[in-house]
Amino acid sequence: MIVRVLAAAFALGAIPSLGEAAESRCFGTVAQGRIEDSVRLPTSGPNFSAYSRIAAAAGRTHVHSTVARIVETSYRSMETTLPGTVFVYGETGLAEGGRFKPHHTHQNGSSVDFFVPVRDAQGRSVALPTPVTKHFGYDTEFDKNARFEGYRIDFEAMAEHLYQLDAAAKAEGSGLALVIFDRDYLPRLFATPRGPWLRDHLNFMRGKPWVRHDEHYHVDFAIRCDTNRPKSR
Ligand SMILES: [Zn+2]
Fold first, then answer.
1. How many angstroms is it from 31 CA to the middle of ligand 1?
2. Could you tell me the distance, in angstroms and rounded to a whole number, from the CA of residue 104 to the centre of ligand 1?
3. Using CA atoms, how far apart are residues 178 and 233, in angstroms rounded to an integer?
4. Distance 115 CA to ligand 1 centre (A)
5. What separation in Å is there between the alpha carbon of 114 and the centre of ligand 1?
6. Domain count within the chain
7. 227 lies in some domain
């Protein structure tokens, strides 16, 4: 019976084919917007993890379906371009978007915070600790030499990740609308093999952001969203 009902539904085009989730629909801007049918980023993969399982369970890692594909593709690319390098992503947004304290944006599923990839004192690529006691990592303060305790920012890995994010975004007909990262560290990012390309092709925020972006880089993806209007259902 269920099979017959499903078959009828397929014939009518009433439901998407199996394994094909509905695409998200976003509205408004990153600063004033919302989203329908958002998806949650996977909490971990072979070379990446969420900043906090608690925060993910609390619904703080939702994104637009296109953004989810871009992020996952970028991590898959990193498995081959820089094998053994691990990454941590941070806050993205709520299931239905909207105000996302303490962030000023992250409202329509197109913003993602990525924690900086780091190497430990032995030079190994490790996940930056992001405990609750450090506000899930956001309270981490790197010094002027891009060091924090025994960790140092892996600018080469970060630059390669931004490059792969851009490539994955373009393959989805998107792009990186804006990248926010500590201005004092930009010369070090641009001194890496991918640096000159990033400097010439990506839109880094020139002004001073409302909060220091030393421990994470914020990315707004270029996603086409409808004008904001009240929820349709
Ligand atoms: Zn952010």
1. 11
2. 8
3. 31
4. 10
5. 8
6. 1
7. no
pLDDT computed for residue 8 by the predictor = 43
Q: CA geometry: angle at 115 spanning 109 and 117, to 5°?
A: 135
Residue 153 lies in a domain: yes
pLDDT tens digit sequence for 134-173: 999 999 999 999 999 999 999 999 999 999 999 999 999 9
Lowest mean pLDDT among 180-184, 191-195, 206-210: 206-210
Q: Where in the sequence is the domain holding 184, given as residue range(s)?
A: 2-221
Question: Which among 223, 115, 222 has a CA at the least distance from the CA of 178?
Answer: 222
Residue 226, in any domain of the structure: no
Share of the chain above pLDDT 90, in %: 84
- This model's pTM is above 0.70: yes
The Cα–Cα gap between 157 and 85 comes to 7
Q: How far is the CA of 219 from the centre of ligand 1 (A)?
A: 7
Cβ–Cβ < 8 Å for 48, 74: no
| Distance from the alpha carbon of residue 121 to the mean position of ligand 1, in angstroms | 28
Coil, strand, or helix at residue 230? coil
User: Residue 167's domain is classified under what CATH number?
Assistant: 3.30.1380.10
Distance CA 232, CA 102 (A): 27
Residue 44: per-residue pLDDT: 97
Round the CA-based radius of gyration of the chain to a whole number and report it.
Answer: 19
Cα gap 109→2, rounded to integer Å: 34
